[in-house]
Amino acid sequence: MTRCGLNCDPLIGKGEYPAYIACNLMSRSGAVRYEFGYVVDESHPYFTQESGDKEDNPNQYIANMTAGAKAGFKYFDIKEVSKISVKEEEQEKENFK
């Protein structure tokens, strides 16, 4: 599944897009298959959220983006783009293991 989905065209390469539209997550050691009930190893990035499910103002993000981790986003029209940036929010130090 890709996020091109019903659009049939690449997403516009301007503005902000949420982390949860990433289509590939990999750690330095590669990708893992996520299934219901699977416990995510501490070395792999994963999707999560700060609170319960909600329709408006979602707070989903990619956790555990350690050294060498990758988040892949596909199908953006970047013909007119000269700069790409990533918004990063660091957790409080005492939350790290």
Give the structure's gist in a few sentences.
The protein is mainly beta. The protein has strands at 11-12, 24-26, 46-49, 60-63, 70-72, 76-77. The strands form 3 sheets. A two-stranded parallel ribbon has the order 1-6.
What would you say this structure looks like, in words?
The chain has no helices and six strands. By secondary structure, the chain is mainly beta. The chain has a two-stranded parallel ribbon with strand order 1-6. Mean pLDDT is 79; it is low at 93-97.
Report the major sheet. 2 strands, parallel
The succession of helices and strands, N to C, reads EEEEEE
Poorly predicted spans: 93-97
- How many runs of DSSP E, i.e. beta strands? 6
Please tell me what the overall shape is.
Answer: globular
Rg from alpha-carbon coordinates: 15 Å
Helix percentage:
under 10%
The side-by-side strand order for the widest beta sheet comes to: 1-6
Mean pLDDT across the residues is: 79
- The separation of the N and C termini measures 33 Å
Class computed from helices, strands and strand pairing: mainly beta
Q: What's the helix count?
A: 0
Q: What portion of residues belong to β-strands?
A: 15-25%
Which key features would you list for this structure?
mainly beta; two-stranded parallel ribbon; 6 strands; disordered C terminus
List the helices and strands and how they pair.
Blueprint: E1 11-12, E2 24-26, E3 46-49, E4 60-63, E5 70-72, E6 76-77
Parallel strand pairs: 1-6
Antiparallel strand pairs: 2-5, 3-4
